[in-house]
Design brief:
Blueprint (H helix, E strand, L loop, with lengths): L1 E7 L12 H10 L3 E6 L4 E6 L2 H16 L5 E5 H9 L13 E5 L6 H10 L5 E5 L2 E5 L13 H7 L3 E4 H13 L2
Antiparallel strand pairs: 1-3, 1-4, 2-3, 5-7, 5-8, 6-7
Helix pairs in contact: 3-6
């Protein structure tokens, strides 16, 4: 079986798209996951599965059916997750891990779109695309950043979901326990 890490976009954020993690675990078991664990309330999970691709496709349908929400699901294998961590261009940064973010999408992220944001956004954030992983630093904090309101950033990341670096590392730890 493959150990997979999944991220749901926009779950339980600001009181919207409420999806209890207990019910997420039940849905994952129903569609073929084993050893499911969730982490915090924002739609993070690890599981064992024969097919991460099938989980990705079936989970969105299950959420629609049960909750009436169309939620983007991003899946990566444990090996892909380890590569994401290894490729972090800000690994040696002195910026607090909660001010470093990883953004992922199920579909490819446009390198041209990233280049456009980098060339035109005047803020202190640093943005780097490595393969299909978008790494961002928020030296002044994520909540105070103006990046989220920047029009080309909004277009670029409309199908992305982000996690701070502490969450990224915790999901790796949980995935390692499922081996």
């Amino acid at each position: 079986m493959t150990v997979a890490i999944g991220l749901l976009r926009g779950i339980n954020v600001g009181g919207n798209n409420k999806l209890p993690m207990v019910e997420l675990k039940q849905m994952l078991a129903e569609i073929g996951c084993d050893g499911c664990q969730t982490y915090i309330q924002s739609g993070n999970f690890v599981c064992r599965t024969e097919s991460p691709e099938a989980i990705w496709q079936n989970l969105n349908t299950a959420i629609k059916r049960r909750f009436g929400m169309d939620i983007a699901v991003v899946m990566r294998t444990k090996e892909e997750w380890a590569e994401i961590i290894a490729n972090n261009p800000f690994a040696d940064s002195d910026i607090d891990p909660k001010h470093r973010m990883l953004m992922l999408a199920q579909q490819p992220i446009s390198p041209e779109g990233v280049a456009q944001v980098v060339a035109n956004y005047p803020g202190p954030e640093r943005i780097v695309l490595v393969d299909q992983s978008l790494y961002i630093t928020f030296p002044d904090g994520i909540g105070d950043s103006k990046l989220h309101a920047f029009p080309s950033w909004k277009r670029l990341t409309q199908s992305c979901t982000g996690r701070n670096w502490n969450t990224v590392l915790k999901l790796e730890e949980l995935a390692s326990q499922l081996v």
